[in-house]
Design a protein that fits this description.
single chain, 426 residues, mainly alpha, Serine Threonine Protein Phosphatase 5, Tetratricopeptide repeat, two-stranded antiparallel ribbon
């Protein structure tokens, strides 16, 4: 027993040394955390491009992006945690919204199309801000990973070669963050905060209840993705109703605005284009995809909406399969210009330009792809090929090593990379 007490006496001070003290704006008290706000923000920011990639890029309309950001910023003004909140509308048709640690909020195009009024959208955004203000994502990271691991992950972009082994965990952590299933306690806390935030920002908080009704009605056909990560038991509706009844609902509150309806009309105007994209992606995901059928769907999708960056990216990938690299580069470059945070068009543009032996431009796009998602091994392999062709053997060897460390062994270029590395003798 004495030995156990001695060990505890040694561990407890070490725990508090490793923790950072911070002020919790929700409670007004001093708390200790393994992940201080600056590190939480840095980690969240790292995963923004991965979230954008998994949701087919950002919706390529500045007015739509600004509108959702304005709603988010209005609510963010009343929340206790003062972070540099960022709001993104992503291309996916899935009915969902989600957040990353540090204040990065994502709203799916499909969610806005499913809603009827602005206060419904505000209620969902306020709910996601509730998760961030309660530090739910940060607490998950603290629970799952140790202090040194989190600090090293946050330092990946500073020295990618030094933290090569950590890059192997990059996508794994991202997948967990992007599919977190909140407990009922988490949801209850986010509901309490979200209702408060929406109300204090001037919105009628009953918008969240109306959203629940919409989600429940959609369950009869296809369950909204939001319900997969945000459980909606029958007791939750009643509880939220009771929470809202405590607020003064007689004062002027925003229910809907002409701007919301205008933005929704804009999204409806491009829906046919994205429906064709969804059909094409479904075909391309099959074991033996019909490339010609998918290509025709994507071409029609782009005709209907020339700025559909998701369709441009997918068509560029088909051009690559057909070895029409010039056309692949044209589509991918256009998509990359429409969304500088979208990984796939940057990588495809870099690869197509490599095949065209336009090495200078290829490096530019591949380096940007590497910055966006640093765990993708193919990027390093093709950078190695380019630097080898340019006679920069030291750089080439560095990229080949990195590619071989990151690969799952099924990329198709592993033998070639190992052979080239041996030949360089570095």
């Amino acid at each position: 027993m004495k030995i156990k007490r001695i060990i505890l006496l040694l561990i407890i001070p070490l725990f508090f040394i490793s923790c950072a003290s911070t002020y919790d704006p929700l409670t007004g008290k001093k708390v200790y955390t393994l992940l201080p706000p600056e590190k939480e923000i840095k980690i969240g920011k790292m995963y923004v491009p991965l979230a954008i990639e998994q949701n087919h890029g950002r919706y390529p309309d500045k007015e739509v992006q600004e509108y959702v950001s304005q709603i988010g910023e209005r609510i963010a003004k009343v929340v206790p945690r003062k972070l540099d909140y960022q709001f993104y509308v992503v291309n996916t048709s899935a009915i969902n919204a989600f957040a990353l640690p540090g204040g990065f909020i994502f709203v799916n195009r499909g969610l806005i199309l499913a809603l009827n009024k602005e206060n419904e959208l505000a209620g969902v955004i306020a709910h996601e801000l509730g998760h961030v203000n309660a530090r739910h994502h940060a607490r998950f990271l603290e629970k799952m990973y140790g202090l040194s691991f989190l600090y090293n992950i946050a330092a990946i972009f500073i020295s990618q070669t030094r933290y090569a082994d950590l890059l192997l965990q990059f996508s794994k952590i991202g997948a967990q963050l992007l599919s977190l299933k909140w407990s009922r306690d988490h949801e209850k806390e986010a509901d309490i905060l979200g209702i408060r935030f929406a109300y204090e920002a001037g919105y009628d908080p009953r918008g969240l209840l109306d959203t629940f009704k919409i989600f429940e009605s959609l369950q009869k056909t296809e369950a909204p993705e939001w319900l997969l990560t945000h459980p909606l038991p029958k007791t939750r509706y009643k509880y939220v109703q009771e929470l809202i009844s405590k607020y003064d609902l007689t004062k002027p509150l925003i229910v809907d605005t002409p701007r919301f309806q205008e933005i929704k009309r804009k999204l409806l105007a491009t829906k046919k284009s994205y429906d064709l994209y969804d059909k094409a992606i479904k075909i391309l995901s099959q074991k033996k995809p019909n490339l010609y059928e998918a290509f025709d769907l994507l071409t029609e999708s782009i005709r209907l909406y020339p700025n559909n960056n998701a369709s441009l990216t997918a068509r560029a990938s088909i051009y690559v399969e057909k070895k029409e690299f010039r056309k692949a580069a044209e589509d991918a470059i256009k998509a990359a210009k429409l969304d500088d945070l979208y990984f796939s068009p940057h990588f495809i543009a870099g690869y197509a330009l490599f095949e065209l032996r336009n090495y200078e431009e290829s490096v530019k796009y591949l380096e940007r792809a590497k910055e966006l998602i640093p765990s993708f091994p193919d990027t390093y392999y093709y950078l190695g090929r380019i630097y080898e062709a340019l006679g920069k053997y030291k750089e080439a060897a560095m990229y080949y090593r990195q590619a071989l460390k990151l690969t799952d062994g099924r990329r198709g270029w592993e033998r070639d990379a190992a052979r080239r590395l041996r030949r360089l003798g570095l």
